[in-house]
Amino acid sequence: MASRSSTPTSRFVPLPPIITNNTDRQFLQGLSNYIDHEMTKVDTSDDEQRYIIYKTAFNKIIEYVTAYQPILTVMKKEYEDTIEAIKKAQSEASFLHAKLKSMASEPSTIRNYRKRADELEERIAIVKKDNERLQRQLEELKIMRSEKEKQEKQITEPPKRELKKDNRLLPGLTLEESTDLPLLYKKLDKLDKQLKELNISFKTRYVPKSQKIQLKETLDDKVSFRDQLLRQGQFYKAKRLRLKVALEAAQSYNRVKPPHQTVGDAVIYSLAKARGMLKIQQEKDQAAAEQNQGGEGPAREGSPPVQATASSSFEDDDPNKEKEAEMMLEYIEKFNELFEDGKYDEAAIHAASSPKGILRTSATLAKFRDVKKRVNGRSPLLSFCDALMSSAGTGSSKPNAHLSAECVECALKENRIDLLSHWITQDRLTLSSEIGHMIANHSHKPNCQALAQNIFTRLHQYRDAVVCYLRQGRVQAGIEFARNKAPFRHDDYIHVLCVCPSLQLLHVLVEGQPRGSSRPLPVGVVIQTLLQEDNFELALQFIQELQNTSSIDDPQISAFQAAVLDDTKTTEEEWNGLVSLLQDQDYEETALSLLASVTVLTAMKKALHTSKDFDELEQTEEHSQGS
């Protein structure tokens, strides 16, 4: 028991010391350095910033000292709650202070509002008094004005005549006539007529004096209107001169059409030249007038001012032509403005819809061609061509062959086959052989060849149309077209063979026709044509395929032998030359088969010739015996 009492136990667990080793000392030293370093960056008088630094340092201590974390965390929470309570108390104190201040100043504010209300009421009373005074003055002025108008009316109106009773006799009448009632009625009618004439004369010959002022104002208006018309006339004369120069320049351009120049450029150049000549002539006229004023003699007769001379030349001009020239000039100026502003799409549409096609020319197209940049994914030249084709379908005439060819060339360069197909389908182009060859040579793709074939068929150029068939791979359809819709001659088939040689074409020409129909070309002509074109390999392959194929009419022989036997155009020397060529190229089997076919053909020809001679001899003997 004594031992238990000597060593009393505690309910708290003992904590280890804070600094136990060198690492703890280094941590505390680094923490102190961190606090000193951060304090140099902030304002030391600002409690909030200092609080943040120490708060961060305290968090580092809690993270480092694991044994003291519960105690330090509790301490930190107590500190933070205390600081928040202080901040909240400060904010509430400031709020209450402001509210107390406003409540303290409320009586003075109410007093100021009342004082301002009294001042406004006084001003309202003063304004009302002024309004009443002004209203009384207005009424007095109205009364004075009405009295003045009455006085002026009494002055202007003539005084009414008072009829006086006159007992005297009527002048010019005797006493008896004065008592003659019918005579008096006649005299009354005569006097009434005289009175009416006097009233009419008074109204027509004499007018009030106030009308004189009105007539003078009317005269001034007429004079000013006359001056305005004179100025407008001078303006229109100068405008007519410019329009005539522009019309003559446009007509001269349409006659010559120089390259790389639009009609707008020609018109602008002519206007500038005419303006310079007019200025020189005006200077000469002014110098001549100064000499006349100086006493050097009268001016030379027959030399009126340039404007008068130019304007007098327009007297016989047609007004419709002037309006047309004015419209064309405005159209050209609008086009140049759009083009210079870089609005190429709008300029293209404007030029394509120009009246009488003044801008639908190769010169305008060349102007668009000079622009190298692209707008909205295409060149300005293609925009102009598209607008040109679109306008051709809205009432305007189709562009000529040269302009159509340039539009097609532009579409091909841009690889816009779809757009080109639309133009041809909608008949917007003036078709020509040049356009057809341009499309056919652009690409051997079926879509290009189909377009070229359509063009050549419309132009009745059947050779080129069949070539387009063959380039599409439609050999059978092309030969059928050549035989039926466009009857080919011997030279036409040879031309097609030279342009598009192929095994399929050779077979169709020699053996691809129905039974009983003639071949377009004999096999010997086909082979000789291939040899002339230095195409021996194709000729050899064709011969070998024919040898390996049975004839349609006689399966016992090859197609090559049947074709040779049907060939009446090729001579024996030409066949022998072909046999020698095959032997020289070491194709003995092919040469032997060809030689056998030629030998049979020669024997058949000789037999036919002998039979024909024998028949002729028999006919001669029968004729001689009968005679």
Would you give an account of this structure?
The chain is an all-alpha fold. Among the domains are: 22-96, no CATH class; 232-286 and 318-430, Serine Threonine Protein Phosphatase 5, Tetratricopeptide repeat, CATH 1.25.40; 431-500; 504-627. 74% of the residues lie in helices and 0% in strands. The chain has 26 helices and no strands. It has helices at residues 2-6, 22-41, 47-64, 69-156, 175-178, 181-205, 210-256, 263-293, 306-312, 319-340, 344-352, 362-369, 380-392, 401-413, 417-425, 433-442, 446-458, 462-471, 475-483, 490-499, 503-510, 523-532, 536-547, 559-566, 572-584, 588-626. Helix 10 packs antiparallel against helix 11, helix 17 packs antiparallel against helix 18 (462-471) and helix 18 runs parallel beside helix 20 (490-499). The longest helix is centred in the first third of the chain and has 88 residues, at 69-156. It is flat, with a radius of gyration of 60 Å.
**DSSP strand content:** under 5%
The helix count comes to 26
Overall CATH architecture of the domain at 232-286 and 318-430: Alpha Horseshoe
Query: Which CATH class of the domain at 232-286 and 318-430 applies here?
Result: Mainly Alpha
Largest sheet: none
How would you spell out the order of helices and strands? HHHHHHHHHHHHHHHHHHHHHHHHHH
State the distance separating the first and last CA atoms.
188 Å
Low-confidence runs of at least 5 consecutive residues = 1-10, 295-317
Coiled coil: 72-154
Protein name: Translin-associated factor X-interacting protein 1 N-terminal domain-containing protein
Keywords: Coiled coil
Domain Translin-associated factor X-interacting protein 1 N-terminal: 33-142
